């Protein structure tokens, strides 16, 4: 993050949630990473700004932090790899750690190339994509083009199985918005969740994908059955769509989920 007001807000959020700040890096020159979200008619689009602090992650500091905490999972994406410095830092972490690699694939126009996607998939164990990204992967790597409106079709199943095989993945998660999500596992098992319950009012979908991933990884760490994990990840992601932005201002937002999911 940068040494600016936005960076101070990041630190304040770490303190609010009681998170360890040992791995935070401060860039004296570049600004704290920021994405402009334009909203119109219930939709939004991201404007990805150039030359942000996250483009300058120091590899040595990142390795030291990783060694100190020995993470079980490294959660990474494609945007962090748009610059050579941060990309080298990420790949240094991946080489040095035997943690599970969770790739949240974001194919943003002008920010990622097919080659970078390919390299990321080769590094991953579990990959999460949305429908549009899944269709990109079908076209690039399976030469199959299928309508993802029917995720249960033989063609879609065969194409997803091909992706798992080509990239030696443990699992492939496809998020479907209001229609739920599907998890394709390397052993051929397929799990589908029911449609997510929409909030009373959809404000925006900013952060919904990250919210899904957070609960998926929580469920994995706590040993929840995959069906429960998918359903809860969908439920939480849908709830995030009912607030402005990705992070609730009131911590009581989390209490109903904690009470139901972590009671036992």
Q: Any descriptors?
A:
two-stranded antiparallel sheet; 264 residues; 9 helices; alpha/beta; globular; 6-stranded mixed beta sheet
Verbal overview:
By secondary structure, the chain is of the alpha/beta class. It has a domain at 1-70 and 83-99. It is 41% helix and 15% strand. The chain is built from nine helices and eight strands. It has helices spanning 5-16, 59-69, 84-96, 114-123, 131-142, 154-166, 208-222, 226-240, 255-261; strands spanning 35-40, 43-48, 73-76, 100-104, 126-130, 171-175, 181-185, 190-192. The strands form two sheets. Strands 3-4-5-6-7-8 form a six-stranded mixed sheet, with helices on both faces. A two-stranded antiparallel ribbon has the order 1-2. α4 (114-123) links the parallel β4 and β5 (126-130). α2 runs parallel beside α3 (84-96), α5 packs across α6 and α7 (208-222) packs antiparallel against α8. The protein is globular.
Output the strand order for the largest sheet.
3-4-5-6-7-8
Element order: H for helix, E for strand: HEEHEHEHEHHEEEHHH
Q: List low-pLDDT spans.
A: none
Quantity of strands, as a count = 8
Proportion of β residues? Answer: 5-15%
Given helix and strand content, the structural type is alpha/beta
Query: What do the pLDDT scores average to?
Result: 91
Radius of gyration: 19 Å
Major pleated sheet: 6 strands, mixed
The gross shape turns out to be globular
What is the first-to-last residue Cα distance?
37 Å
| Helix content bin | 40-55%
Number of helices: 9
